[in-house]
């Protein structure tokens, strides 16, 4: 939810940027006005303004800090709690000893995992959504600059609305797969129609621009739910991959659009490859968020067929052997067969008890 709210704020900022440019009337002034609000990010260092997440504190065993953070949230929400409601023998105090040390995790620990790093690598294909947007906006150069700009911003707003309406009903992985398929098909059709100009090229450009932005937004949103809480750097890697795609588009503008065909072919190939990789991702709809590395490793991908919707499967790339399930029917059959075999009289051997002489002859 927070990721989608951030997407709406980004779209609103792009809508307000032309009006701000008209008011400033000078490029250096506009640059200064757009940069000064970033100083507000320094308030993140102030714990009284932006307290640390209690979920992360509990996941990394910062128990005293988590208790203080929860008490601060209750006081800010206007919930009056006395000190006797926080006894020393609480659940957290009993579960963790006094000498329990907090644990810290880094991104480098992903190399010891089997599933988490694969999910992070697949979701890093978000740079396809940001880098391939240049392939669609280039076909709109024949129109007015303001029309092209507002068309890109409006498609971004529609992508946010599309994700909010469909992702909770059809699932994160399904909508991400649909966005990758439509983006790849639009890109391939535009490659085939390079020498043509007309309504079909315009429609394919707008549709590809819409779903490429949905692909980039949903990849970041999906990473928030799939990556473990203890390793926050995974989400940063996904966002950094998106910046790689933006840098590739900027380099094409600086080179005066030379090498555009190669740029288009590379990103179209990545879009088709991402369709196959997205099938390996788990589904996070209506499931608890993973906190530890163990919970992140135990995530399963949903089945490909609707008939097995309630049963999760192991990831295709996971090499761990599957655990056999206990079947009581098979066990009862084995017991009954063994009992019949032991009660037969025509056995090649007889199981007899020890011969004891009678006490009275």
From TrEMBL:
tRNA processing recorded as keyword: no
Name this protein carries in UniProt: Solute carrier family 22 member 31
An example Gene Ontology CC term for this record: membrane
Source organism of the structure: Xiphophorus couchianus (Monterrey platyfish)
Segments crossing the lipid bilayer: 31-50, 115-134, 146-167, 174-193, 199-223, 230-248, 260-281
Molecular function terms from GO: transmembrane transporter activity
Membrane topology per record: Multi-pass membrane protein
Record-linked Pfam families: Sugar_tr
Keywords attached to this entry: Membrane, Transmembrane, Transmembrane helix
InterPro entries: MFS_sugar_transport-like (IPR005828), MFS_trans_sf (IPR036259)
Protein location: Membrane
PANTHER family, alphabetized: SOLUTE CARRIER FAMILY 22 MEMBER (PTHR24064)
Predominant cellular place of this UniProt entry's protein: membrane
Highest taxon of the lineage: Eukaryota
């Amino acid at each position: 939810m927070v990721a989608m709210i951030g997407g709406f704020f980004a779209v609103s900022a792009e809508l307000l940027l032309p009006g701000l440019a008209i008011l400033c009337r000078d490029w250096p002034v506009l640059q200064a006005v757009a940069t000064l609000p970033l100083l507000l990010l320094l308030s993140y260092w102030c714990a009284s303004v932006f307290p640390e997440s209690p979920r992360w504190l509990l996941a990394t065993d910062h128990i005293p800090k988590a208790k203080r953070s929860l008490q601060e949230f209750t006081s800010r929400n206007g919930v009056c709690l006395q000190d006797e409601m926080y006894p020393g023998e609480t659940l957290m105090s009993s579960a963790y000893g006094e000498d329990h040390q907090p644990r810290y995790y880094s991104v480098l620990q992903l190399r010891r995992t089997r599933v988490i790093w694969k999910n992070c690598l697949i979701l890093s294909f978000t740079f396809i959504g940001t880098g391939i947007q240049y392939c669609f906006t280039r076909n709109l150069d024949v129109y007015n600059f303001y029309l092209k700009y507002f068309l890109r911003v409006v498609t971004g707003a529609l992508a946010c609305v599309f994700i909010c309406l469909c992702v909770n009903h059809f699932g994160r992985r399904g909508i991400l797969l649909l966005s990758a398929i439509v983006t790849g098909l639009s890109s391939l059709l535009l490659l085939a129609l390079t020498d043509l100009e007309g309504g079909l090229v315009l429609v394919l450009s707008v549709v590809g621009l819409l779903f490429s932005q949905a692909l980039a937004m949903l990849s970041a949103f999906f990473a928030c739910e799939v990556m473990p809480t203890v390793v926050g750097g995974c989400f940063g890697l996904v966002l950094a991959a998106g910046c790689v795609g933006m840098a590739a588009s900027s380099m094409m503008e600086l080179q005066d659009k030379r090498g555009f065909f190669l740029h288009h072919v590379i990103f179209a190939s990545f879009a088709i490859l991402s369709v196959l990789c997205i099938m390996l991702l788990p589904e996070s709809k209506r499931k608890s968020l993973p906190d530890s590395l163990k919970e992140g490793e135990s995530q399963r991908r949903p089945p490909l067929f609707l008939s097995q919707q309630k049963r999760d499967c192991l990831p295709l790339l996971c090499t761990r052997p599957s655990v056999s399930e206990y079947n009581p029917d098979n066990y009862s059959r084995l017991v009954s067969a063994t009992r019949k075999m032991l009660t037969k009289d025509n056995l090649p051997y007889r199981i007899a008890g020890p011969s004891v002489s009678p006490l009275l002859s």
